[in-house]
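Troubleshooting log. The previous structure file for this entry was overwritten by mistake, so regenerating from the original sequence record. Sequence copied from the archived sheet and checked twice against the printout by T.R.
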Amino acid sequence: MTALSVLDLAPIAQGETPAQALARTRELAIHAEHLGYRRYWLAEHHNMPGIASAATALVIGHVAQATRRIRVGAGGIMLPNHAPLVVAEQFGTLASLYPGRIDLGLGRAPGTDQATARALRRTLASDPNAFPDDVVELMHYFSETRPGQAVRAIPGEGLQVPIWILGSSLYGAQLAAMLGLPYAFASHFAPAQMMDAIAIYRERFQPSAQCETPHVMLGLNVFAAETDDEARYLMSSRQQAFIALRRGMPGPLPPPVSDYQAGLSAQEEALLASLAPGTVAGGPETVRMGIEAFIARTGADEIMVTAQIFDQAARLRSFEIAARMHRSLAA
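Regenerated output below.
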């Protein structure tokens, strides 16, 4: 059966502090573990007033300490922002503290705007096109130490922390296939090339020590409530945040509003419509059918559910309904 996991952006709601947002993340992680989700991932974003997971490795530790079994990881670490050795040491430390529970997803985007990307640069000549070489270097740090190896990740060496390649285009699919790594596609915000990326990854996959067969995980927005109308109302917070980002005005996650799309331009309506292939919103039965259809269309090995919902109680309830409807597919 297709596994179900969680992607949390640690959203900062309007009127809320980052500390409150991180407390909500901890509560959701405990809830997700209780509900049987396989993993709980956090994403690296910078200079974003509505996202509290900039120091991603620290938040992963915060979540791992609060839970017992669920796998915790990065979805992902934006590798151009960091030296591979630093990432290896951070995740080697996490894997030493929480053995068998840490995942490391890697992306090649900066996770922010260009000005902030320059502020994050690890050298003046930092090159995002070096991403494949950086991934291989990072993999070596997690391997057993080789004779004469001058630079070692301690903690990190020999721990074989599972590495995933993230992507929202065909580039990541090709790299993940070439290296024989599991692949996570960001269909929750960029579903346009999803099917092509899945096909390329599966067709070109080369088995590796980490992964003998291809493994595809797909992001899916799921807004679940007692009724379809309530779910669409909750989803309007995410819609507002998405349009604000596209307008170059990111901010805290806003409260939901009725008939949000009524005041949008045709171009903005098209932007929201582009998210539809990676979004399910509705009452329990609508969610069940939506998840079932998404799995049937994509053949996903795993689905990573995300939901930017303003009210914490509604957010917890949404993940509960999604888990219950997913289980019902196997009944």
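The chain has eleven helices and nine strands. Archived copy saved in two places this time.
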